[in-house]
Amino acid sequence: MASPKSAEAFRTISEAASELDVPQHVLRHWEDVFGQIRPMRRAGGRRYYRPLDIDVLRGVRVLLYDERYTTRGVQKIFKENGVKYIAELGRLAAAGQPIELRPLIDNVEEDPAGDDDRAEESAVSPGSDSPGMTPALRERLTALLTQLEKVQEALDEATLAIEAIDVEAVEDQ
Cα–Cα distance between 79 and 22 in angstroms, integer? Predict the structure, then answer.
């Protein structure tokens, strides 16, 4: 009997599907729907999922299956919070810890007419002012949040690029 793979080992699509308890075609579909899911590919197109990929997939699974978000809702969460946030949800789920979504996330419901502009009310109204918050402070905080989101996206992309370089270096040895 083969020993189980280490947490840092790459997973094939069959291993990832088994670990996440979803069919392989679902993982392929998620790659199409969520551009942030990009497993490494070897010659012949064989997929290899890094530990971060597995965490992201687990986070997507939690949002879709447990939290009952729509595909559009998960896409919005990716856009607003980044890959690291989804991966953290996956790590929490793997550790059996409770999932607490950020309060400003809106879950977009899919409209049968294809008009996906409706959103559920968030727990905190984006337009409401906190006591003592001036319009200038709100504007400054919004600008800082935008900058932080851009930095997070850049860090997410850099992390994926570094991991890909590390894998290529190991394969070349």
Answer: 24
Closest CA to 7 of 40, 55, 44, 47: 55
**CB-based contacts of 41-49 (< 8 A; 24+ apart in sequence):** 46/12, 46/13, 47/12, 47/13, 47/16, 48/10, 48/11, 48/12, 48/167, 49/10, 49/11, 49/12, 49/13, 49/15, 49/16
Type of residue found at 110:
E
Query: b/e string for 25-51 if b means 16 or more Cβ within 10 A?
Result: ebbeebbeebebbbbbeeeeeebbbbb
pLDDT digit string, tens, across residues 17-31: 999 999 999 999 999
What is the spatial distance between Cα 152 and Cα 158, in angstroms, rounded to a whole number? 10
- DSSP characters over 42-73: -GGG-EEB-HHHHHHHHHHHIIIIIS---HHH
Domains of the chain with bracketed CATH: 13-124 (1.10.1660)
Does residue 84 contact residue 155 with C-beta atoms inside 8 Å? yes
| Residue 19 · residue 11 · CB < 8 Å | yes
- Provide the whole-model pTM: 0.59
Contact 24, 13 (CB under 8 A): yes
Look at 97-106, 111-120, 127-136 and tell me which has the smallest mean pLDDT: 111-120
